[in-house]
Amino acid sequence: xxxxxxxxxxxxxxxxxxxxxxxxxxxxxxxxxxxxxxxxxxxxxxxxxxxxxxxxxxxxxxxxxxxxxxxxxxxxxxxxxxxxxxxxxxxxxxxxxxxxxxxxxxxxxxxxxxxxxxxxxxxxxxxxxxxxxxxxxxxxxxxxxxxxxxxxxxxxxxxxxxxxxxxxxxxxxxxxxxxxxxxxxxxxxxxxxxxxxxxxxxxxxxxxxxxxxxxxxxxxxxxxxxxxxxxxxxxxxxxxxxxxxxxxxxxxxxxxxxxxxxxxxxxxxxxxxxxxxxxxxxxxxxxxxxxxxxxxxxxxxxxxxxxxxxxxxxxxxxxxxxxxxxxxxxxxxxxxxxxxxxxxxxxxxxxxxxxxxxxxxxxxxxxxxxxxxxxxxxxxxxxxxxxxxxxxxxxxxxxxxxxxxxxxxxxxxxxxxxxxxxxxxxxxxxxxxxxxxxxxxxxxxxxxxxxxxxxxxxxxxxxxxxxxxxxxxxxxxxxxxxxxxxxxxxxxxxxxxxxxxxxxxxxxxxxxxxxxxxxxxxxxxxxxxxxxxxxxxxxxxxxxxxxxxxxxxxxxxxxxxxxxxxxxxxxxxxxxxxxxxxxxxxxxxxxxxxxxxxxxxxxxxxxxxxxxxxxxxxxxxxxxxxxxxxxxxxxxxxxxxxxxxxxxxxxxxxxxxxxxxxxxxxxxxxxxxxxxxxxxxxxxxxxxxxxxxxxxxxxxxxxxxxxxxxxxxxxxxxxxxxxxxxxxxxxxxxxxxxxxxxxxxxxxxxxxxxxxxxxxxxxxxxxxxxxxxxxxxxxxxxxxxxxxxxxxxxxxxxxxxxxxxxxxxxxxxxxxxxxxxxxxxxxxxxxxxxxxxxxxxxxxxxxxxxxxxxxxxxxxxxxxxxxxxxxxxxxxxxxxxxxxxxxxxxxxxxxxxxxxxxxxxxxxx
Length: 909
Fold this sequence. Notes:
This protein is an alpha+beta fold.
């Protein structure tokens, strides 16, 4: 390096290699975490989008263009040419270019062809007829059959001799293996399709094909090509429906003109399946605009000009994208809250690292200013010195994040890493410039107890209070799911900021009182420790800010995760009705309850006779009816908190000779009132009940309609149990299924709870949130260590001087511990209180339903953050533990070095 600045930087790096390495490690780690955060979010968001597309049926996610066949007024030759493969392929190329302007297309899964719009009756007597009606067939000439299916028998259809025309009397076709099995069609079978005029079209089956990927868009967009369906004739009665089979015959594309001679009203179509791996979550809005343009916008107008004005564009992709967008918009702000808290704590740690370096070099920089160094020159040298270390470290952290999370967007990660690097570079120069604006040979002692904050600080603190109050009020009014911008995301952080400023204001008061009392006690250690705590030269604002922000974020994060867990547990309980549920459509074996009671984890088994279609008022209404043992069922309802009731109120013999009482849902009670209600059961018997209890929930039945009665009021046949509700400490699902066998289905609460995570976006958001809270706690501990290290040289020199006056090692340890305890206790109490207050203030405006459950449920209600004692207590108690540990370690290390060594090191104070 050349020049004075280069010599300065090289000299400083050689003089303090340990500090340079520590700064490089801190910047690299922070830059890596900052760059990894947006890339991890992108990865989880993309996985969530791909999961949503995979769950949706291809006929919803694909874009289908359909156009009517050529106009009948056209000459026959032109009509036939319009449905042949060359004409369709030419239009497909133009349409593909149009669709791909806004949507990546999987060309291999995007076929085109011609098919009949209506299914045609095939009156072959040997085809199966479930109720006497002849089956119907679609005729489809779709390209790419040989590339998406393999021959099970026979050969693929083709054409021979003269080109096929509308007047051709016989064509070849293939059928899928499912169609061949269901309709009993073999190779060589002949089917005659009636024509509107003249003889029927003869279709000879030459092959049976098996789809390579039955669920791929090629087959699943029009599933009847692969799987026949049993349809019900329009107008047939519900009691005796007229059913018939509907299948498809797959023709060679060159045989498409033959469809013009049928009565099936042939149409041309082009399918475009999106390439899911090319879709990105951050492009959701652009994709929605592109789909909207195809459905009813400029792109549709271009389709009409290209193919014809009657061309229809249909897709359900916009609904899938919109549903995913709602999920993402509900989860994003919650993760942003954790990111804001962790980012604030990390930023404070970087500022404190710069402050530690500036404090250690205070005398050196003051001497340089006294010798004529300008602020600009001093700041430039410090910036160059820091940049030489921070810039390569930031680049290394960015590279690590890019390698750890491939396939995500790079610009947000680069911006985050650059922000960290710039902050690390500026922390030392800015702190030095502020501290050395004026040339001073000696600074006065900074006394926390006697110092009086300036008016500027008071104005800044009042401004911060106003901002925090506005953020909290905004969050409570519109909710965190409403927006991820501005003050709303920073509300928990600002709450911690205000708490830190308030605690710094209040800290002198208890110190004054304690110091006065300690002065009247025997021994000087207590008084000296409190006096030192009040006259520390290190500003407590930044450490308290880091600690309280981290503790508030951890408390809020713990409340979010606790609220998510409780919402999922509640939803699982509502779905199962107990810890486990065994259910069958018929009566369960009499010995099954005994076997289940012996299963691991089962404490009680409640038998229920569930009649899902009990008919009320002469069959005009159907209501699920549960017959129960009142005592056992009341205990179950009380334990699960699902509509608890007194057992005696449901007992059949508890009334005065009238109809047995029943428990009903509010909807049923409103519909039938409190008078006698006649109910007809499945076995032909009937019972008349009166509604005596109304509850919104009950364990045996989930839904808005139900009746619960005493089993003693039912007939012996109707009273046989069909449902067993099990309670206990985590029943073993495997043991329950082994005991049940084929008698019924088994559902457990734990398994149902696991199904609540419906998207990788939900599980990914939980992991990111947990990681952000953990990182915030780590940076808070680092900030605390930096605060203690800043005062370490001064404390070491003090211990050395006091030991020359007779202070023992034990007294030295007590002195350092007692000196560091006031701020640690203050941070512990303030952090726990601030975390609790943040959750109490912000929870009403935060809706966790999107991250907790796949869909909202009125019975579950709105999922909100719930205070978690562990997330409040454990991080808060970690503060005094770390503080005391560092103080004890410092006292031990100073004792090893000896008083002479410490005094030779000089007096940094």
